């Protein structure tokens, strides 16, 4: 992902604990835009959840067509309905943590495991026809921090933003922001450990 022109936001590095729960507004819109909530989950708890999910989830390796050939998706994935009686306890606890910053009627969670710096997700927006209108997406990060790049779509004002998503942080993206901005996690050559992203969404009866 070319992001050399992105504004990098190293939030609250070395700042007093007072700022640990400070919310950072990255994008503004009528539905709340994109907000970054650092340190929603204590580091030790986030690490426990990371280890539990890394080892317990039946991760899938997908392939998809791209550029006239079929390629491996550069990360492992999984998904659950939050009403699933087999939902791992760490996911239920993560949902409760996310509710402290956005208490929406989330009914599903998608998981991505980035094994190292070679794993990534290309710039994209969530598919709006899969989501209930007006409801946000909340991303809880576990494991090692990875940068996310948020960039305005063509014709939308603003500069790209590159922000490190720290373990235990929550990024909340409005439904409306999916029409104005793309987001992605670029590959990196820097040594980096594994990361799990939990994406909470409201799909409603559309995925019954």
List keywords for this structure.
13% helix, single chain, globular, five-stranded mixed β-sheet, Jelly Rolls
Give a quick account of the main beta sheet: strands, pairing sense, barrel closure.
7 strands, antiparallel
Instruction: Specify the oligomeric state.
Output: single chain
Number of helices: 3
* Quantity of strands, as a count: 14
Estimate nothing, just give the exact number of structural domains.
1
Q: What distance separates the N and C termini?
A: 35 Å
| Share of helical residues | 10-25%
By helix and strand content, what is the structural category? mainly beta
Unreliably modeled segments: 12-19
In CATH terms, the superfamily is Alpha-ketoglutarate-dependent dioxygenase AlkB-like
Examine the coordinates and then state which fold CATH places here, giving the name of the CATH topology.
Jelly Rolls
Shape: globular
Spell the H/E element sequence. Answer: EEEHEEEHEEEEEEHEE
Mean pLDDT: 90
* Estimated radius of gyration: 16 Å
Query: In percent, how much strand structure appears in the residues?
Result: 25-35%
Specify the CATH architecture. Sandwich
Task: List the strand order in the largest sheet.
Answer: 2-3-12-9-14-7-6
CATH class: Mainly Beta
């Amino acid at each position: 992902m070319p992001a050399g022109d992105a504004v990098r936001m190293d939030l609250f590095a070395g700042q007093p604990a007072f700022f640990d729960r400070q919310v950072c507004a990255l994008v503004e819109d009528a539905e709340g835009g994109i907000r970054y909530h650092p340190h929603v989950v204590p580091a030790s708890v986030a690490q426990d959840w990371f280890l539990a999910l890394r080892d317990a989830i039946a991760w899938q390796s997908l392939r998809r067509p791209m550029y006239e050939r079929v390629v491996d998706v550069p990360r492992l994935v999984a998904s659950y309905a939050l009403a699933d009686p087999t939902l791992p306890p760490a996911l239920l606890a993560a949902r409760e943590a996310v509710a402290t910053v956005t208490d929406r009627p989330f009914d599903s969670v998608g998981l991505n495991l980035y094994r190292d710096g070679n794993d990534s997700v290309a710039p994209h927006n969530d598919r709006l026809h899969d989501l209930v209108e007006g409801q946000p997406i909340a991303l809880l990060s576990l494991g090692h921090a990875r940068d996310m790049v948020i960039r305005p779509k063509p014709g939308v004002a603003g500069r790209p933003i590159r922000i490190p998503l720290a373990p235990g942080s929550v990024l909340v993206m409005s439904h409306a922001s999916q029409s104005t901005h793309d987001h992605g996690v670029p590959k990196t050559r820097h040594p980096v450990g594994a990361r799990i992203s939990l994406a909470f969404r409201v799909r409603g009866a559309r995925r019954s």
